[in-house]
Amino acid sequence: MKRQKINGYLLLLPSLLLICVLILGPAIKTIYQSFFDMRTQTMALGFDFVGLENYKKVFQDEYFLKALKWTLQFTVISVFFEIIIATGLALLMNKKMRGQGLIRLVILLPWSIPVIVAGIVWTKIFSYNGIINTVLIQSGSISEAINFFGIPLYSKFAVIVAEIWKATPYMSLLILAGLLTIPKEYYEASQIDGAGKIKSFIHITLPCLMPTLSVTLLFRIIGLMRSYGLMVAMTGGGPGGETQTAAMYAVDNFFRYGKISYGSAISVVMLLVSALISLLFVNSLQSKVE
Questions:
Q1: Are 34 and 268 in contact (CB under 8 A)?
Q2: Max alpha carbon distance in the chain (Å)?
Q3: Which of 20, 98, 249, 263 satisfies CB 3.0 to 4.6 Å to 67 for a cystine?
Q4: CA dist., res. 208 & res. 102, Å (int)
Q5: Which CATH architecture best describes the domain 72-240?
Q6: Using N-to-C axis directions, what is the helix angle for 62-94 and 206-225, rounded to 10°?
């Protein structure tokens, strides 16, 4: 028995080493840097220990608070529509029909496209001479092309649409995996009792899917809280920083402005926010499973 345990730990050792090197190491270094005043421009002169001063600046920084607010809005709106559309697509992929393989391929195709490429494609679609403006003008809906990336509200709409298109297939795949675990006997019993498709969905499918939906939501919320690539490719944070996410703000401070410690502090704050959300979801998931 002891030998089996030792063999098990030995098999886990490579993964643990990768976690330490690629995740724990950088995380510890980032936390360490956040307690100092480190700047690229003055690194040669040394750096001073400032304690929690960087964290105080973070919560007093109106630009960070603005970026955090948009990040939360972007996350809530995107997840709301993604979970609804993804559930519908998962039900479609779970249905037995001709050409099911092709249907699944078409649905999952956007997920396979790199984020930057997807951002460039959607930028072209929403551009001044893009498909959206062309269709709206030709249909008579508008008389003049809309500057989607020059107006904050339209810019936010564009990136949300692109995010939903890109991420929904991933969520539908996870939900499909949950659907496949539901015993068919439940539906057969409900049909014998005279329950229709709607009642079966409400009383069987949804309750059985709750653990899967919770995990799916957790993955997506954490992913959206660190949104970077799509936003950079489409808007670069503009216009006027209206679509700048917290992750973009942290990267800009760290690399563009050379504020190593301040960028690290922002990263740690976002890490804590993500950890808090994860903790809430894990507790909720545990109660649902029980």
A1: yes
A2: 79
A3: 249
A4: 27
A5: Orthogonal Bundle (1.10)
A6: 140
Beta strands 36-37 and 48-49: pairing type? Answer: antiparallel
Six-digit token string for 77: 């709106």
Q: How confident is the model at residue 290 (pLDDT cuts 50, 70, 90)?
A: low
Coarse DSSP helix, strand, coil percentages of the chain, rounded to the nearest 5 percent: 80, 0, 20
Q: Which of 142-156, 201-215, 225-239 has the lowest mean pLDDT?
A: 201-215
Rounded distance between C-alpha atoms, residue 201 and residue 235, angstroms: 40
List the chain domain ranges: 72-240
Tell me the pLDDT band of 103, cut-offs 50, 70 and 90: confident
pTM, whole model, 2 decimals?
0.86
- Residue 13 has what pLDDT? 80
Burial of 106 (0-12, 13-18, 19+ CB in 10 A): exposed
What the block records as the tokens of 206 is 């949804």
Tell me the residue type at 61: D
Mean of the per-residue pLDDT values of the chain: 85
Peptide bond preceding 110 in cis form (omega within 30 of 0):
no
Helices (H), 53-99: 53-60, 62-94
E runs forming strands in the chain: 36-37, 48-49
